[in-house]
């Protein structure tokens, strides 16, 4: 397995996936998912649950293809629970850090700086 860490930054409307070598904070964005139900208005609970499943499926696929060995989550608090609910036990064991904050609107440099302060 490669020695990569994935960072998932998400809320109910958008998820950004970053890869970094080892435990460094050299973030390289590898994917972005947008909730198809999001039209600029508020999302329903059902819309958020469907999107959480989509985000979790992407994380699971990454583990199955051995694209990462560690997982960091920086996810809005309520959405974090929805995502974790859909993760397998094998994937949950790879989580070494989780931050219950919404960092989706921040730049890569702002995310790196925020995580360094954690």
Spell out the blueprint of helices and strands.
Blueprint: E1 4-10, E2 14-21, E3 28-34, H1 45-64, E4 70-75, H2 77-85, H3 89-92, E5 95-99, H4 108-117
Parallel strand pairs: 1-4, 4-5
Antiparallel strand pairs: 1-2, 2-3
Give a short synopsis of this structure:
The chain has 118 residues and is an alpha/beta fold. The chain has one domain: eRF1 domain 2 (Nucleotidyltransferase, domain 5).
Number of helices: 4
Outline the biggest β-sheet: 5 strands, mixed
Integer average pLDDT: 93
- Order of strands side by side in the largest beta sheet? 3-2-1-4-5
CATH hierarchy: architecture: 2-Layer Sandwich
| Rg from Cα | 13 Å
Give the tally of β-strands. Answer: 5
Description:
This protein has 118 residues and is an alpha/beta fold. The chain has one domain: 2-Layer Sandwich (Nucleotidyltransferase, domain 5), CATH 3.30.420. The chain has 4 helices and 5 strands. It has a 5-stranded mixed sheet. β2 and β3 form a beta hairpin. The longest helix has 20 residues. The termini are far apart.
């Amino acid at each position: 397995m490669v020695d990569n860490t994935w960072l998932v930054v998400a809320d109910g409307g958008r998820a950004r996936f970053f890869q970094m070598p080892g435990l460094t904070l050299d973030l390289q964005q590898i994917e972005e998912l947008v909730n198809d139900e999001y039209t600029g208005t508020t999302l329903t609970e059902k819309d958020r649950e469907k999107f959480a499943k989509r985000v979790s499926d992407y994380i699971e696929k990454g583990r199955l293809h051995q694209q990462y060995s560690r997982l960091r989550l920086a996810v809005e608090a309520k959405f974090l629970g929805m995502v974790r609910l859909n993760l397998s036990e094998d994937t949950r064991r790879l989580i070494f850090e989780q931050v219950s904050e919404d960092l989706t609107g921040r730049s890569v440099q702002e995310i790196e700086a925020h995580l360094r302060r954690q």
